[in-house]
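Figure 2 data, in text form.
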Amino acid sequence: MKNILDTPSQNTTENLKAVKDDLDLKIPSKKLEKNLLIATWNIRSFGDITRKELSEPKDSPKRDFHSVLCIAEIIKRFDIIAIQEIKSNLKGLRDTLKVLGNDWSLILTDVNKGDDGNGERMGYIFDNRRVQLSGLACELVVPQEWINTVSNEALTEQFVRSPYAVSFRAMNQTFILVTLHIKYGKSSADRIKEVKGIARWMADWAKDVNAYHQNLICLGDFNIDKRGDLLNQTFIAEGLYIPEALQSNEVTRSIFDETKYYDQIAWFNNAQKIPNLSLKFLNGGNYNFLDKALINRNIPKQTLSFMLSDHYPIWAEFEL
């Protein structure tokens, strides 16, 4: 990793400059003691990498050092980013942390075993200068009583990938992030039970004034097909709120299909439709990296999806 950082090629330097300039235009800047930038990103099969600056057509995996530099440049624009599809092989993740430097930390789950778990982990990468861990880190599991409930919409088994809750502190604000990656299945109906399960879990938590903290934010890959479909209606029906800024048709999630509504950042509103947050939401959006990342390499979109991702990062800015 040392060589590419010391003497990157001209193409790599130009690409990174283009990405940095693009991020400056599209992502709010970090303001000391003023704002908090939270993001979520499903980084496709974030595991092994080809240990070259630039991969070649026959290389497997496709992700190379240049891709890692682009991923790190995107991540560093946020204070905390929830990552889905971290694989058991951590080479790519470790190299990303090396690029980010000593001011950045990681907390993650173990691997989800079994075929449905797909050998995936979930985790958070965060800027120590801006946020700190505040004590809670746990995976959410389904109570036996819920499994025993006789209902067409009841979960009959545990989450395929256990949602991961971690508490953080920024200034005098404490908040809990819960990240998840809903099993895709064969249709939207296959996802409803897991989405309702996590929404119910969080709703019970949010109603308990004696719980660890009420600042609950749910984020991750919900695998929602499109705006307004049954899965989305079920999600909203449980009381979770998606800010208008993240419901815009311009905030696309998938590099392949702009209609997909996979990734979300959401929280609960109270009876007066006021967010159950002590943080004030300011703005949100995605980061479309297609225009700037990996330019000058003539890479097909399918290949690029394995170098960066098939998902765009989704972000939300809060006032401290």
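Caption note: The radius of gyration is 19 Å.
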